[in-house]
Structure prediction request, 230 residues.
Amino acid sequence: NAGVTQTPKFQVLKTGQSMTLQCAQDMNHNSMYWYRQDPGMGLRLIYYSASEGTTDKGEVPNGYNVSRLNKREFSLRLESAAPSQTSVYFCASSDLYSGGDQPQHFGDGTRLSIL
Amino acid sequence: AQSVTQPDIHITVSEGASLELRCNYSYGATPYLFWYVQSPGQGLQLLLKYFSGDTLVQGIKGFEAEFKRSQSSFNLRKPSVHWSDAAEYFCAVVPWPSSGNMLTFGGGTRLMVKP
Prediction:
């Protein structure tokens, strides 16, 4: 069982470059999420998609865009990368319609460095 | 402001010793509560969760947590730590009521285990 798959696992960008982080889940979950993890700050929500066709901002959305391509896939795009976006990015999914008590399942992360 | 606090950034215990990791939250109503563990270079794995009912919940890998409403706490415990428990631990909540099943994380506690 693959669960949540993120690509790429590592990436180095120059300031101003753009890139898209990919995420796919095979658990037939309705909801998907993008977080960033920075030392001492836990994980902070960037964007989420409660269901296919909807997306909403989280705590730290500035500088990012997302696309819920279909029920399985949820991508995160950096249009013009900045050094402050150096972080580890995690995608997660959950079955929202079973209630807010459903745990989120996480991918292994994308380690992004912006020079 | 609503928040999740993990007061201990680092904890070191000897193998075989007991462990308690602290978590406090500040929400008006009892949220849904979770503990996740992150091994180096990996994503987050759910250890246990609390929604209602018995305030002592059992999780995987021999962990348990106790919800104390009066203290707004959800501390994680293990009677005897193994070297493989060395990892970072995150407390997280879904506030109730919540839109989108959004998790708010504490800053994390890094556990080191001495032989």
Notes: The radius of gyration of chain A is 13 Å. DSSP finds no helices and eleven strands in chain A. The mean pLDDT of chain A is 91.
